[in-house]
Fold this protein.
Amino acid sequence: MSTDPVFVSSSDMENASLAEGREPLVWYPGIAIAALYGLVILVGLVGNITLMRIFCTVKSLRNVPNLFMSSLALGDLVLLVTCAPVDASRYLADEWLFGRVGCKLIPFIQFTSVGVSVFTLTALAADRYKAIVKPMDIETSNITAKIFIRAAIIWIFSMTLAIPEAIFSDLHTFHIARNNETFVTCAPYPHTGDLHPKIHSMVSFLVLYIVPLLIITVYYVFIAKSLMSSASNMPVEGNVQVRKQIESRKRLAKTVLVFVGLFAVCWLPNHAIYLYRSYHYTQVDTSLLHFVSSVCARLLAFTNSCINPFALYLLSRGFRKQFDRQLCCGRLPWWVARAQSGGHNNTHVTSLKHASHSLPTCNPTNNKLLECKASALGMQGKGAVSDGPNHG
């Protein structure tokens, strides 16, 4: 989301939380909050850089979902490097520190990054829909180049939507009626009347949250129906390779769904508080409850930009192995090597190029529609981690 128009500064917090006659302690909570931001940024940098490095360097993992996830990680990195430090600085200073240029640039970057995140998740859901519900429609030629083009379109579309942020964001003066003080901060719309903030908050909520999540929900309703139908129609003695392909696609669909769920949970509080502020634009809420809620909502929103790599780490044994290897400078950690030497870990990277001969032949005269469909699914997953994300 864009920079909050009435983000409570440290001086506001002091007025709201200090009792009569006590010495101001504004720096202590400000430093603690900034330290939490620093932790989120550090964890996010490690996770997202490692994720992108894995998907770019491990040839077997260069497939459609992982390319989209790399784009998602890049958007998260941009948000963490540019917008999170700016947010943290608001708890250490009583005024906007980045000038008029920063006031126009930071909201633009933040809107773009959140747009990239939610639109990429929508593209991932669409990809899962094609792979599971309509596998015959999947393109096989120049797929990597086409995915790069789609990712670039998502970035361009997100930046286009963020242009009004750069145009209308500016420094504005706000008045605190409680103590008759004023402060200057960055707001994403003119400070004239109540209409601008209401329109801005509602449009942001719809474009960056409600509409994409509704589209993703529709995709997953069809995916769920297709998976249930496949499970009920699969013969008991069905082809083992076909079953493995179906299970692999179920796991990847669940992974994308987890990413979507994390985004929905992490960004909803921030949207809710922003809507509340937009409908009370001329008033600055200096209550302690509002301050704590704002801090938690903002930290939760930025946490979404660092949590995806670790969610994938828990969901995929193949990605976990590569992640551990990257963190240990190309060598397997001792606990992984020990498990493998003891024969307790059979996770490995496979290439469906070598396994494709075991797939059933898709012959219209065979009357084995389900196996034909699964065969088409399997042929799209070349070079995928056996238990992790793959194209089909």
